[in-house]
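Attaching the record inline, Q. Sequence:
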Amino acid sequence: MGKNLNKHIFKQVRNACLNYGLIENGDRIAVGASGGKDSVTLLCFLDLLKKYTPLKFEIIPIYLDLGWDNDLTGLQELCTSLELNLVVEPTNIGYVVFEARHESNPCSLCSNLRRGALNRKAKSLNCNKVALGHQLDDAVNTLLMSMIFEGRFHVFKPLAYLDRMDITVIRPLVYVEEKDIRAFCASVPYPLVKNKCPADGYTSRTKVGDIVCEIEAKYPGARKRIFSALTKAEPGSFWPQN
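Structure, as predicted:
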């Protein structure tokens, strides 16, 4: 199963890159490397893209230290095995979100601060792109969250140019299901970084993800069909207001 799974994920990553033009020759790509399952999978398969496709690009993994005292041993070992230099960027984001601001809904602020810190560090390292580990399940959950909590149809894109930062964000794992990422990481010989964030597992995103899992259990294949709808949205099916 291991080799077949690797081939399956590689094909999905390659197809996402081809379909959305995510990576080009000469790119210098900063990778948001938290050390969790998604970023570890992203690092491994970007490395495989370098080895097994004609694309010529650089990978710079960046770990944002939020102040949780996380053990980075596994992430450091993984980067060493891939011949990548891990950049560790200290921040005060954890302090700002949970102590200075005492946010009742900390995830939104934390996400914005992390995005800004990662983009700024990427620019300082002369990167023209930032790769994030969002996958298929994240896209579906984000879509449903926007509909349930915001009353709008909104989700992140596989490729997005940020004109204020002059940097392009790419998401090469958008075709990959979380269950396949978990299975892949079970074979990675390095421990994942354990997330010590106080809000981990208690967020609205987690609750929506649980709902999607219930729907999937009752209607197998529903998650992938919801995802597929993102690429088939017909403008005429929405209700424009005058």
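The longest helix spans residues 2-20. The chain has one domain: 2-232.

More tomorrow.
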